Amino acid sequence: MEPLAVRLRPIHLDEFIGQSHLTGKGKPLAGAIEKKHLFSFILWGPPGVGKTTLARIYANALHAKFYELSAVSAGKDDIRKILADDAEGKSKILFLDEIHRFNKAQQDYLLPFVERGELTLIGATTENPSFEVIAALLSRCRVFTLAELSDIEMEEIIARAKIKMPKDAREWLVAAANGDARAALTLLDNTQELYKNVTVETLKEALQSKTLRYDKKGEEHYNTISAFIKSMRASQPDAAIYYLARMLDAGEDPLFIARRMVIFASEDVGLAQPTALVVANEVFQAVQEIGMPEARINLAHGVAYLCLAKKDKSAYNAIEEALADVKKFGNLPIPLKIRNPVTKMMKDMKYGEGYEKYTKEDLLPEKLKGKRYLKPQ
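and the corresponding structure tokens:
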């Protein structure tokens, strides 16, 4: 028998629970379905909030042929097979789960087919797509952000299972799932299979399995990586190394951990200790070349270093503030003095006139004169 989460998966948008900012009347996905508008998009959000379900609903509503791949195991050959497949006159929609796991070369390969409309891409990711998806592909996709499901929405989804349980068990299940419908339904399914009666006690017993406790797409994965990052930020090496050990013991991808450390080195340590980025990159390289179990030592070394390093978020804050101004003001005119006078006409227009290499003059666009993004801590 199919898992409970699969059996309860909605087929039509009016059956879908949650994400009303996308699925409500007049909202982006609802409007696209109503108008049969075919376009590529990326669904970004935590696990178990409906990314796969929304992709299926959209493809079904547009009468398109739906292909589903996981970027963890898929490659160029899988895309070639889809392109060669006879879709019987239907549009082809490729749903690429965990799109952030496709490397740059794979994304580059996919790009022209999306560009020409041979494939309509729906990507799903738990990672920020602006970090993980190449700019050219990202520019051809609209990004929709999904939120954790609320307790009320979780209760509605659990009620659809029509499994009897006391109120305290339902409340415990909602709290334990932490906005992840798949995690809640999987735990509920396993509890009923193992114990028949669903109570707080049997739910807790069913949760004891290591694989249930640490689903790489589930709640514990996000709780643990969050605790890991926050322990490094708080300069607590003992806590950070403990959470590192928990992730490694549960089978977490060591490169996922190392990648987070590289981000942390610039975001949180930053200018206070610039060598942190060098160390974090070397740890990433070592994990790639050495592999587990020995790479655990490199990871522990890097974690200890990042924990003990001074912290300064000013570079991160600066780029975030600058990006906000770019979005707010658009392409403001660049001062003539620092433009590149490539042609005679440009020189006549005073491009580059009066430029000095080591000037203290403010070189920001006129509207932003005096603005300071970088504020070292």
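(Above: one complete record from the training split.) The longest strand covers residues 65-70.
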